[in-house]
Amino acid sequence: MSAIDFSTLTIGDTVVESEIPLSRASLVDYAAASGDHNPIHWNERFAREVGLDDVIAHGMLSMAAVIAPVAEWLGDPGAIVDYRTRFSAPVVVPDADTGSPATPTTSLKLTATVGAVDSAVGTARIDISVKSGEADVLSRTQVRISA
Amino acid sequence: MPVNTEKQGATFSLLQPYEVSREAIVEFALATGAKADYHFDAEAATALGYRDVVAPTTFAVIIAQKSEAAYISDPDSGIDFSKVVHGSEQFSFTRPIVAGDSLSAVTHVDGVRAAGSNAMITTRTEITDAAEQPVVSVTSTIVVRGDGE
């Protein structure tokens, strides 16, 4: 049912590249949609009190935002059989200096490459690198797909 | 109170099923930049063979975290939520979640172990549909920072 022709996938090929802007408003939107209202994601004073430099993005927001363009590339959402990541560094989201809190102040840069492919069986592994600035904020991010 | 290692092997459940709505799928898709038409348009979803609009890949975290909260907020678990750091997350799918699903969840505390002054906890939440068929398994690790940090 997948729209992907596995015989066209070559290990090492980049299949998706994207930059995802994040703002303080992104975190409030994700808190509402997910039900995760931990104040480290919206209250700067509280974030500092628990030892963070500033408000940070939900790890699960990064994980969700990164898979979105990869799922679009796949075509059929049922092709994803496994999706995993490790949260290796926090994504600090400063407040905008002036104006709308929806003004992006940081971003996630993702590069999805083919990590493994078995075109006879119709399975593949897509590896995703995720950086914010120079930091790898997610690590060992892998999507297993099946035809 | 330190993290209670005797909770390893314990299970916690949602009190009632989570009813998946089109509205919740749209809100989650908009909040996470999921732009595929099958999140918003039932006809696009049925054209792919689904009963109704399809949830974004990580939508199951809503249900998993509700179920995990029964464990994490249990005073007997000994977990100070303000010291919790998310370590890793994994979704293993049997099928995508679609609007109209009535989903039950059981969280298994698979591992609770001390690592220096910290504790590392692994939970696995099995999400099943109204026919008691598996939908997605969500494995999460968290680190509870100790007083030494």
Task: Give a structural overview.
The complex is a heterodimer of chains A (147) and B (149). In chain A, 22% of the residues lie in helices and 35% in strands. With 147 residues, chain A is an alpha+beta fold. Chain A has one domain (6-146): Hotdog Thioesterase (Thiol Ester Dehydrase, Chain A). In chain A, strands 1-3-4-5-2 form a five-stranded antiparallel beta sheet. The radius of gyration of chain A is 17 Å and the shape is elongated. The relative contact order of chain A is 0.26. The model of chain A has no long low-confidence stretch (mean pLDDT 95). With 149 residues, chain B is α+β, with helices and mostly antiparallel strands. Chain B is built from three helices and six strands, in the order E-E-H-H-H-E-E-E-E. In chain B, strands 1, 2, 3, 4, 5 and 6 form a six-stranded antiparallel beta sheet that branches. The longest helix of chain B has 13 residues, at 60-72. The radius of gyration of chain B is 17 Å and the shape is elongated. The model of chain B has no long low-confidence stretch (mean pLDDT 95). Strand 2 (80-87) of chain A pairs antiparallel with strand 3 of chain B.
